[in-house]
Amino acid sequence: MKLDPRRCGFATRAIHLGHDPADRPEDATRAITVPIYQTSTYEQPGLVDDPPYEYARVQNPTRAALERNVAGLEGGRSGHAFASGMAAIQALLSVLSPGEEVVVSRDVYGGTNRYFNQVLRRFGVGIRWVDTSRVEEVEAAVAAGERVRMVYVETPSNPLMEITDLAAVAEIAHRARALLVVDNTFMTPYFQRPLELGADAVVHSTTKFLNGHSDSLGGVAITAGSIDPAILAALPGLYDGDLAAHLAFMQKSAGGVLAPFECFLVLRGLRTLAVRMEQHEDNGQRLAAYLARRMEEGSSIDRLLYPGLDGHPGHAIQRRQAGGAFGAMISFDLGSREAARRFLEALEVFTLAESLGGVESLACLPASMTHASVPAAMRRELGISDSLIRLSVGLECYEDLEADVEQALERASAA
Ligand SMILES: Cc1ncc(COP(=O)(O)O)c(C=O)c1O
Predict the structure, then answer these.
(1) Annotated active-site residue in 149, 208, 276, 341
(2) In order of start, what are the domains of the chain with their CATH numbers?
(3) How far apart are CA 46 and CA 44, in angstroms?
(4) Among 56, 80, 314, 365, which one has the highest count of C-beta atoms within 10 angstroms of its own C-beta?
(5) Residues 109, 190, 239, 306: which is the catalytic one?
């Protein structure tokens, strides 16, 4: 493509950013797709200082193409790819030092909860769990902590679909000289770009919608174009006083980088992100509307959590900050674990599995699957009951998805 993709719309950028041969001087063939540089090291031209490529943990051209692509899609300055979403989260949280604190959404992916509670805490970082959908709770937690240096948000949250007002929370965090980090896995930059709303960094599990085909595990961390120098100066653990430099340093020093083949897969998945997200959204909205109708008609659905529903407390904020989109993740409660088991085991198009965001529809029981490592008392307090079901709505024909849920609901209520 001859035009600079940075001047184009989202789908054009998703297809071209990072791929275009003009951006890849290392590839003399001008291959239309980014080659997989399956190498661990590079021949050095001589004993020069700072060769462009030295060792694959530090630089890899396939990874660099992916990093340029995701940074561009999120509107960020830098992207850094890691071996999993958790590895990317870990790299971002490594800016915190013992004695510092992080305010975090109480409802997050179970692995994120486990990392904060069972790993980060052991390194002496204080953790304040709050309902970040209540801006006043964020404000109180930031004010109560002596050394809050980060606010960490998932919105929509996993699995309760709580919505956080990112612009409001960015202002609170920045007033207190804390970074705002947002896990944007559920919405993707196609619908929601937290950096434009004031966040300082975005993290993704690329395992989900970005790769989109359930065939690779990965993560990326993207930094904002400009971050208040006073916030960075308040972080003594930050490498070289710069967040992007810190992430590169963590790739090199801790080594949890994404392998070249996985980078290739994510790059390929990203090329269809725009069309996939449109269809995920359409199927998600239609299925949520169907479930809402079933609930009104008195089916056994107790609670339906989807930000696209009028009665959802975060509906207006979500509409405003995510371009009118609500996503393809839906949670609902069937009232008893036995009914949930019957529903999940009756599904014929949806697959009972952890994960989300792939072309195929998945269903899971967070309490015993994705969120099993959240302490039981915390799950109870949050409302992640033993009968809460989470759906990731895929790209199959909508009619097949609705028919599947309908027959499984019937089997669930036939005691
Ligand atoms: C919202 C969210 N963030 C992060 C992660 C962790 O990503 P990974 O499984 O790629 O380590 C997950 C995994 O399910 C997730 O759902």
Answers:
(1) 208
(2) 7-270 (3.40.640.10), 273-413 (3.90.1150.10)
(3) 5
(4) 80
(5) 109
